[in-house]
Description:
The protein is of the alpha+beta class. 23% of the residues lie in helices and 20% in strands. A hairpin with a 2-residue loop joins strand 6 and strand 7 (187-188).
Amino acid sequence: MTPGSGGSSPPSETGGTPPVDGVSTGEHADVVTPTAAADGTSDESAGPQGGSTRRRGKERKQLPLWQETILMVGTAVVLALLIKTFFIQAFYIPSGSMRDTLQVNDRILVQKVSYWFGDVQRGDIVVFDDPANWLGEEAGQVPGNALTKAMSFVGLYPSGGHLVKRVIGVGGDTVACQAGEVKVNRVGLQESGYVTLAQNACDGHWSVVVPADHIWVLGDNRENSADSRAHTGDPGGGYIPVADVVGKAFVIVWPVDRWQFIHRPATFDNPQLDQAVAAVSGAAPAGPVALVVPALVWRRRRARRP
């Protein structure tokens, strides 16, 4: 019976009305069913639009597995290099010079973002390039085979040629040792929270004025650290150029039971450290002053060590 004649179409087996112009009504009103063309293909692939669909399907042909693998590996390497260069890099702690803050065999992550627009701060634990063969005293782990060298290149394996210390003084600061206490701009530092292995935070009596764009560093294990004190006679006088700083250590990631964030000690937030800079910078001479004592003391300890 034709539409509009007042009759009704026989009900379908599913209980709805039969499809009209390829559109199901009733339960399946949202499903569009393409009609078949004479050659057995559907309307979607027929005509000019159908031909372009078939061509697009051919153009989107999947890459061979080996090509996909190369593409994925190449993308991963590029991303790893970008992350290592601009954001985060992994390092390994080979010696006990930073105990007990950092232990031997700790793996740390160093972030570089903080120093994009800001300065190195007192109290930061920084990783820096070896300025004058300091690693002759504290040898670091270096990649030993092709695999570890490749992993080091992309930042997945700790690389050698770097040192890690705590920043005590920045450009313009006067750093001194008096009666076993480290003072910055005549303000004593409260270091008992992280200098835990030595009876005193320093030995002898010495004073230095840090040149502009340089830092003065000490290890937390003051009696067993080849830091700025031990290199006053080397090229650079024990000062580290800020340009050699790789980044700031912010977390210990291995071993698992050592996982923790690294925080800057509160003693370096003392506003008097900055207020006193102007008072001492004009009167103090630039460069090391009376630094022979700490260097000789440190070397004598090394000689006594079994």
